[in-house]
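ERR on first pass: missing label on line 2. Operator R.T. fixed the label and resubmitted. Corrected input:
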Amino acid sequence: MADVGRGPLAVRVLFFGAAKDACGREGAEVPWCAGMRLGDVLGAVAAAYSGLGPLRGHIRLARNGEFASLDDPVSAGDEVAVIPPVSGG
Amino acid sequence: MADVGRGPLAVRVLFFGAAKDACGREGAEVPWCAGMRLGDVLGAVAAAYSGLGPLRGHIRLARNGEFASLDDPVSAGDEVAVIPPVSGG
Amino acid sequence: MEIEVAITEGPIGAACACARGAGARVEFTGVVRGEEGGSAISALRYEAYRPMAENQMRKILEGLGREHPILRARVIHRIGEVPVGDAAIHVLVESGHRAEAFAVAAAFMDRLKRDVPIWKRGGVP
Amino acid sequence: MEIEVAITEGPIGAACACARGAGARVEFTGVVRGEEGGSAISALRYEAYRPMAENQMRKILEGLGREHPILRARVIHRIGEVPVGDAAIHVLVESGHRAEAFAVAAAFMDRLKRDVPIWKRGGVP
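pass 2 clean. output:
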């Protein structure tokens, strides 16, 4: 998947914390298509990385560095972060 | 009053904050007598230093470094502190 | 529990270098403890989604600053390997009076632990 | 309001020298402000009933330590003339987790302002 859709018509996905462990990688690219929403991006990475399954109920997504909801639209070139429960401090 | 009752059969009274200003001094001695209570000590200094009058409702007393009530007994040699509202910190 | 109290006529540490008008400074330091999940560790690893984490911390402080009249807030979070006994985070809040500084420092930590993309990533044995 | 946030891979200040097991340190600094009762001042004078004040501070900390599991508490109050910008009081509380350290530091200050015989005795112009 990392090699699919590279270029401007892709969405860059970053995995952190337990999501990084579950996927075994720091990020991936998902091909962008018109009308795409954040939930579609999550669906695409969850299909590619089944380890994300158990985390799905605990994950939040960020779009370009801001928390966003699954219904929010995604543009080509956006950076989407998969954010499991945080534990800083 | 500072010279009355000096010696073991006296109670040492210390004035702080606004009470020191009101009395114009840092302390006084009050003659001790059997059965004396803290309220009697306050009565004696208030009679001698009329400036204490307006403060009386706001004063707490300490006996030998601990807050005490007007009904508490006083022994000869005790140190009684007249403590107006505090303002540390 | 260890208690020390003192009254002194000399300076307490260095002068504060506080914000103008500050009468209160509250600092919080989060320190790495010698165990994690029941095992002894020598250090704890932290990871951040760095630009978003800094942005979130700033937004949280801006929001708290709208609710409470504070003068200054500064937060430093360390990432990578943080040895036991070292600070993982330091929060400093200054305000005219103490209630706001306490409220903002404590609320910031609550928000950080919910909404700032920084993760403990396991202990180093 | 001044806000600074940073994420760093290097140490934050010096190592904590905290009590064993401490994961949280809260510090409060009370700083002399440049005015008192509406007039500009250069310093504020404090006076204490010293032995009782130290004793009261200790008793308050002991009482709070019975309510909250803290590891260490240290209080220093300055008296005499304290210049503007200098600390009049510094309170440090360490505990395993942050809630107790915040609670004890804030509660100590509330109690100090009610029950510790120390007085502001006017500003120095």
